[in-house]
Amino acid sequence: MNAINAGSVTVKRNTTHDMFNPTQLSKILGTLTEQLNFCVAYSGGLDSHVLLHAMCAIASEHPAINVRAIHINHGLNPNADAWAQHCCRVCENLGVEFIACALNLAVKPGDSVEAVARTARYECFANLLQPGENLITAHTQNDQAETLLLQLLRGSGVKGLAAMPIKKTFAHGYLLRPVLTFTREALQEYANAHALQWIEDDSNLALRFDRNYIRHEIMPTLRTRWPQALTTLSRAAEHCAESAALLDQLADMDLKWVSDEFNKALLISALTQLSAQRQRNVLRRWIVLQGHQAPNAKHVQQILATILYASADAQPQLRWDNLEMRRYQDRLYLMALLPRHDATQIIPWDLTTPLTLPSSLGKLTAQTVTNYGISAALNGANITVRFRQGGERCRPVGRKETHALKKLFQDWEIPPWQRDRVPLIYADDTLIAVVGYCVCANYAAQQNQKGYDIVYSTVNELR
């Protein structure tokens, strides 16, 4: 499982595996959240069954606590439907609300089935959680140690080696892993003591999967030589998590200095004054804070080599996944891949209703105002929205001379790839406004005159 970045939450580590019970679980949850609504990620396997059973025991003692169970049917095993039915029966016997979600996974050639399933699973959880409800999973100390070894063998940095946090913000509440300090053996003892019946997924024995190979071949050998291997590996993950948090703090400090908030970009002149290590660190942090996955080492190095240190008059770009990074003048921009755009379109608009623009460009809304904006006295002209073709001219309000739109775009430092996507307002065949930048003086509302203020909402602002 890929690492999930965490906030720092410290919970006392168990050094023995005979301590798991509802009382211990309740104490741990009390250190993690004050909220009382919990949803168990219930696969039907040993670990999640123990977690669900213990949560029901806690709820029976504390009626204010609400517990639900979500079962994800990945549809990858012939027994998947039977497992879902088993989970439903268990929840009926426990008196727990049961939600089943069947996935229709689209696995492309070259994709990791495990990665695709994991992403879809957590998207489903996020969609089903209610406001103020915490998702709790049954990841154990064994899972943590296995994740650390997997990430180490993949060459991960400290963020990857931090493995799984015990708490992180998720959907409407938190994702909690309250049994992360317990071994799988401790949960097995609880299950045996309570005569629980759980699902055994035969795919967990398939050694072609890396995690299974580590679980069944590597970990037993390590624990024979080092009996405390689970504890020490988990402690190493905690140290890496602390280091990762410090790196984020350093990146946040650097971002205050290198960011151009108005243009949502980074200042290259400031970036190049940082050491190479801090450049890589701040680039990763900046990309993650914009809601994307951190780029791998190869992509970060390409950013530095092909974009950051390109010649000043160059306009390089780099694409990976569904993102692209571009440079213009002294700024570094990150954006989703630009969709195709037909700049020859002419779109009629009556100004009375919001207009959704093509090519995911956002939405225009005309608000009635006084003393500014586009003059409402348009004398029945046909209003259209167009895009730059070349040769357009305008005298913006406040300027004495008429300029080519190309020159105005340069003055406004609009990146070249955005220029044919800036909406232009026309009255018949005359340019009267450049949305977001100016109204052409001859069509501006005068003192005490009604006007239209064009509000431009981009796709990101609409989400």
Please give a structural write-up.
By secondary structure, the chain is α+β, with helices and mostly antiparallel strands. The strands form five sheets. Strands 3-2-1-4-6-5 form a six-stranded mixed sheet, with helices on both faces. The longest helix has 30 residues. The chain starts with 21 loop residues before the first helix and ends with a helix. The N terminus is likely disordered.
Number of helices: 14
Rg from Cα: 28 Å
Query: Which sequence of strands runs across the widest sheet?
Result: 3-2-1-4-6-5
Shape verdict: elongated
Task: Report the sheet-strand fraction.
Answer: 15-25%
The oligomeric state of the chains shown is: single chain
Please give the largest β-sheet: 6 strands, mixed
Helix content: 25-40%
**How far from one another are the termini?**
29 Å
Mean pLDDT: 90
Please tally the β strands and state the result.
Answer: 22
**Poorly predicted parts:** 1-13
User: From the helix content, strand content and strand pairing, which structural class follows?
Assistant: alpha+beta
